[in-house]
Amino acid sequence: EIRVSPYRLTAHLGMAVSTYSLLLWTGLNVLSFPVDKYVLKSVAGDAAKVGTKTVSYLQEYARSLTPSALTHARRTRLGVLSTVGLTGLTILSGGFVAGNDAGCAYNTYPLMDGELIPWGDLVDPQVQPAWRNLFETTAAVQFNHRVLGTTTALSALGVAAYGLAKGQARSVTPQVRRGLLALGTAATGQMSLGIATLLNYVPLHLAASHQLGSLVVLTCGIYSAHSLRYAGHGVIAKVGSRAVSSLVSGGGGVGSAQKSTVAVSRVINNVKI
Predict the structure, then answer these.
(1) Which residues of the chain have pLDDT under 70?
(2) Which runs of E-coded beta strand occur in the chain?
């Protein structure tokens, strides 16, 4: 029987997923999609003779939000990024499931051989060093994938519910709302598909669909994170700096500038998690 090392298989899978993620993020940047549009504005006063300047729509949108809306958007962004990270870990754990044929055992859900956690099967004394059980023992490999898959689905549903909460519509753009809806829906479907694959003893068509589904969840997560860049600390910090500069140039004086600096710092600190 020809077998591929689970470690090499997972490494290969990880490189493929990383490449796909970077290409997707770069493609969204190149297309300036969905919210990174740019508008030209004339520089006021004598500076108008110099020409025009490019102002990021991300900064303009962030400037228009209240501190509470920014806080909500930033927390949503953190939740989306966490979900993307969990999705990546779950995909990698799926590589070990495939490499060890771990999906061909414990074909029940949620119990594994009649137990929620099969303590007696998680560690094989013959596998040394002991940490290798996490990646080579069938029970441990499948259990890890179950836990990560369930956690990812719950995380996706949680961040979607939080981001789309009633009364917070101003803090998220239409693109973010679509992304969050897609993320929650895709994660739910992917978990359901994974359970169906397990219960049916991993038929090829379901296994392939389950692998494709993981990319769908990852894509939805990256799309949502990209749409939420206006809530990033870098964008908010730039908006704050520009607000202070505008106040000083407008004759607000040192005292007013100091007050503005304190106000901007509070906004930035409020949106930190």
Answers:
(1) 1-2, 32-56, 240-273
(2) 38-42, 52-56
Q: Name the H helices within 44-137.
A: 57-64, 67-99, 119-122, 133-136
Say whether pTM exceeds 0.85.
no
**Tokens 């099967």 label which residue?**
121
Is the torsion defined by CA of 20, 24, 30, 36 positive or negative?
negative
Q: Which residues contact 115 (CB under 8 A, 6 or more apart)?
A: none
Cα separation, 75 vs 91, in Å, equals: 24
Residue 169's identity, in one-letter code, is A
Q: Token pair of 42, please?
A: 């004339």
Q: Give the pLDDT score at 38.
A: 39
- Residue 32 pLDDT: 64
Element (H, E) at 268: helix 253-270
188 Cβ partners below 8 Å, 6+ apart? 153, 156, 157
Question: Measured in Å, how far apart are the chain's first and last C-alpha atoms?
Answer: 51
CA distance 175 to 267: 24
DSSP 39: E
